[in-house]
């Protein structure tokens, strides 16, 4: 089967969904009001609260949520066959992710830009809020640690991508100063910055002296890979440590700066980068017309696709992290409430398009189905090979346009690193908000200071990354808890949809459009979590109990069920309309 048909199916479905379903949600369910004074205006401080052009804000939101996850998850999920993965990406984006992202953004904008964690107090109760904040804190900490590990390793494995990513920082600062201090538009400068980035990537790919290869430099300095350098580490591990220190220093600065100085212009550049990347990939697909060599259903899969498919593909179908971004940073920059439809719903569909092309890139990479089966021989093998298969498959798609496959792979690596860094920056900023909220809750005002809260966030994330020995070697400590990410992330999305449903019920509006995806998601996620916690991590299904995962997994599962029970009481209470909220 020609892969073009899959792309057409997804793109047409997304266009219809945005044109009709998102408009229905905006007018009949969320009832967006063009006269409503958003928090960006009411609480403007030019640091976190800042009225922002909707296309600039769309770029921030899109690139913050579209990290490596909508690439890696779908690339792994092809293990069960491309058909289940495509159906979940398309239907999930239309009826779950779009509703979730749109809903949490609107809910937060109607409540002074407060996060979903804080809103749990007002909508469900103080106890639910504290339980919810605990789940969010663990989730963001895991994400920070693992994304830092991913970026550092991509820098080591693709040294030609480093110069392009580093150049983006001063370019973004220049754009922010030019637009917000001297006046002007962001479009042309950001496009010029993108051209400079790509030129740097292409030149670095051709000229070795432009590649920032710390691992190679340390190996030459030490006299071989078996030698030791920093703290008795190998040259590669020493390079990894240096990159982690550099990354954490960067995210500290980026997360405390006013949003206009770095976050907004950098995210605008990355949004154009994603659009360019998607255009190249889909255009390469249209020109090349490759065949799907992966099976529609993998009959040899060692386990059923349900419920694991629905937690393997999170970003790209529905993800709780999106609600954190929507209510944590995006709602504070929303200038006009009707913009929430474009930013929230179409942002989710844009990520769905990225997930869709990720599936297609993997499903068309292999010459034969036997080659696919050899690479995706087990779920563990799919996890190990998913990202590399996407990079190779994307390079192959871009090569249909006449560009060498290695050039295409370098460009894809730059995109992945840029998005992962954007997500890491936003996640640290979100973690700062959560720590400040907990400090306020427990009478520790020092934690509300942005530098104190940010320091705790960065130090905790760095400590988890550089644990002496993680499952993937030095610096992969975040992966000790990473098996919890999929279920925790989806539980967060389900609880966020529950909060939106409670709010809608109090406004006397229909809740079926938010409650239905919430029920489906919670059933699949709790099913998967019971399998993991009770059967896998407790040791019942094997002779190797994993007590760390079992302990945290049990706590998160109990807390989630507790929150849902308390929320169900709120749903049963009579509707009451608040003039401020409606």
Automatic annotation (TrEMBL):
Location in the cell: Cell membrane
One Pfam family per UniProt: CstA
Membrane topology: Multi-pass membrane protein
Protein name (Swiss-Prot/TrEMBL): Carbon starvation protein A
InterPro entries hit by this protein: CstA, CstA_N
Chain ranges passing through the membrane: 85-109, 130-152, 158-175, 187-207, 227-253, 274-293, 305-330, 342-367, 411-431, 452-468, 480-504, 511-535, 547-565
Family as reported in the entry's similarity comment: Belongs to the peptide transporter carbon starvation (CstA) (TC 2.A.114) family.
Keyword terms, alphabetized: Cell membrane, Membrane, Transmembrane, Transmembrane helix
Domain CstA N-terminal: 2-367, 381-528
Subcellular location, principal: membrane
Top-level division of the source organism's lineage: Bacteria
Annotated organism of origin: Cobetia amphilecti
